[in-house]
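Troubleshooting log. The previous structure file for this entry was overwritten by mistake, so regenerating from the original sequence record. Sequence copied from the archived sheet and checked twice against the printout by T.R.
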Amino acid sequence: MHSLFKWLLIRFKFLCFIVADVDYTNVVETLPKKCFTDRLPDGGFYNFRESGDRLWVIADRIKVTRIISEEERLQILANIGYDEAKEFEPYKQSFEKRMHKM
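Regenerated output below.
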């Protein structure tokens, strides 16, 4: 399962399609920030790798095909061996670190 779909399942509980006519990944990899900062990828998408192995897929449009139940979301993640708590841990640690600085 593609990282985008895992992320969408975890965060928003829906299944969707992205516009994938043009892959801009090679274009943005040549940019200083490795992403478009002034526009969306017109008619397409690009992969944006955050620190570590977290991958975001940036697209100019998505089409939600179906809202899924919490039970279905958990079953899909279990089927692909996705450990939600483990994957969320770096974000949790980062958040807690920022909260302690305040």
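The first strand starts at residue 14 and ends at 18. Archived copy saved in two places this time.
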